[in-house]
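Sequence, please.
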């Protein structure tokens, strides 16, 4: 592939350059003129993405020719510096052509096969979740199968039309790129740099499916922790509803439905915060138990535990969020009612203190609730007070952590985490400094 854009030589200076050079922008901010020697890029399609792409390409110093089925209708939507013409004409001279149409319309471009032969096609498409599940073959691979004489590069699909138009910002500068042809990949990477983006080499076109899944994953690391927090909230809310609203209504004919939006929510939030906080520490305890049982740290944890360990930060932050919400709600309640949760809340809010917060919360809940847990009047519909339920996981975590402090267990765990194996060749005695165990811990 011989495509060598002149802009490639300017790569090192591109970062210092303003994204929209002033001489390209006319008074009403539509983009006016591009120098004749600028490299030419083609775009098939005249939709939202094509328009934003054309704007960015023109402002980055490229000549743009847009191929539309109806150029007359769409020409007015593009910067005046971009040429809008019929598809056949648009693809005749550029070496790189962006395909800004949806997958289901790729086959309608087959009539252009002869003109496209030997050129680079950049597939920018994103499937919907359903399409992604439906097709085993990525959109880019499908495009490559329709145009075997072309080189397909997958790129720019993670960049929205809005970002293209507004210009890259720190958070969304990365452009993953993949192709089976390194030359073509390099050419598109250089274009991305010229446009102010940061190319990320994703390897061969086989990675296209993975790239097409990227925009489908909205805040991936938060999905499970958020669902977990929501699930806990629903469970505790239902439980508190039965105890605080339904039971008085059924057995005492008292209408306490007014409690639903504030009081029941406020009773639920600290429970969720408290249990979530303990769930930050539980996977560490399980991981340590597994390591002790296996006598090595070189066995993979089961996938579910691995994921749980990776999501601890998000779970902790959600715990903090619930505690903060509880604090907010407490302002809406008379001090008398909110007082009972203040200490738990205070402890949970100190999430930076992590485990100390968990211990303090548990001690508070135990001292506050010890006698109440045994009062018959506290059992509504035979259901124990909510705080007794919330104690379960934190108590398991704290007891397990306490067990791990026993010298013969902690020394064994420390050795395992420094590479010792029960059945392996590596045998050594642990350094006397026990803090090393913490420093080498992977959980
Ligand atoms: P759009 O606004 O619907 O534009 C699609 C364009 O495809 C139409 O304007 C049409 O232009 C062209 N086209 C060519 N052959 C066609 C046919 N047989 N039937 C219908 N249309 C045909 O969509 P878009 O938002 O620009 O998205 C285009 C591609 O970019 C998609 O693959 C999308 O996944 C991808 N993408 C979009 C964004 C975004 O933010 N919008 C972000 C990343 C990726 P003519 O009528 O002029 O031929």
């Amino acid at each position: 592939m011989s495509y060598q854009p002149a802009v490639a030589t300017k790569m090192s200076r591109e970062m210092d350059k303003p994204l929209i050079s002033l001489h390209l922008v006319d008074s009403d901010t539509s983009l006016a003129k591009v120098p004749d020697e600028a490299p030419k890029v083609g775009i098939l399609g005249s939709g939202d993405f094509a328009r934003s792409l054309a704007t960015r390409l023109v402002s980055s110093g490229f000549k743009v020719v847009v191929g539309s089925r109806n150029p007359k209708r769409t020409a007015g939507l593009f910067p005046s510096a971009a040429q809008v013409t019929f598809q056949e004409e648009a693809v005749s001279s550029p070496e790189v052509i962006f395909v800004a149409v949806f997958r289901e319309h790729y086959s309608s471009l087959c009539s252009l096969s002869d003109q496209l032969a030997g050129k680079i096609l950049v597939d920018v498409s994103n499937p919907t979740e359903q399409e992604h599940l439906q097709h085993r073959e990525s959109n880019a691979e499908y495009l490559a199968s329709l145009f075997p004489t072309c080189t397909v590069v997958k790129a720019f699909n993670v960049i929205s039309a809005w970002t293209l138009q507004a210009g890259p910002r720190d958070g969304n500068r990365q452009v993953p790129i993949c192709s089976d042809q390194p030359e073509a990949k390099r050419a598109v990477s250089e274009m991305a740099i010229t446009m102010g983006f940061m190319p990320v080499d994703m390897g061969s076109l086989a990675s296209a499916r993975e790239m097409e899944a990227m925009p489908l994953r909205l805040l991936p690391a938060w999905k499970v922790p958020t669902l977990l927090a929501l699930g806990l909230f629903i469970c505790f809310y239902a439980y508190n509803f039965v105890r605080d609203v339904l039971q008085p209504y059924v057995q005492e004919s008292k209408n306490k439905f007014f409690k639903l939006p504030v009081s029941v929510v406020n009773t639920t939030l600290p429970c969720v915060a408290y249990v979530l906080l303990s769930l930050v520490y539980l996977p560490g305890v399980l991981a340590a138990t597994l390591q002790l049982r296996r006598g090595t740290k070189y066995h993979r944890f089961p996938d579910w535990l691995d994921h749980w360990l990776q999501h601890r930060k998000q779970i902790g932050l959600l715990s903090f969020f619930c505690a903060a919400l509880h604090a907010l709600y407490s302002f809406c309640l008379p001090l008398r009612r909110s007082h009972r949760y203040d200490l738990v809340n205070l402890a949970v809010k100190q999430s930076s203190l992590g485990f100390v917060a968990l211990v303090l919360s548990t001690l508070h809940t135990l001292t506050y609730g010890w006698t109440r847990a045994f009062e018959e009047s506290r059992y509504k519909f035979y259901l124990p007070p909510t705080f007794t339920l919330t104690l379960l996981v934190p108590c398991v975590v704290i007891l397990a952590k306490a067990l791990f402090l026993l010298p013969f267990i902690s020394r064994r765990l420390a050795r395992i985490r420094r590479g010792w194996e029960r059945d392996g060749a590596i045998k050594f005695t642990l350094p006397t400094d026990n803090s090393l165990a913490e420093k080498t811990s992977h959980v």
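Residues 45-50, 68-70, 74, 100-102, 105, 108, 124-126, 157, 160-161 surround NAP (CB under 6 Å).
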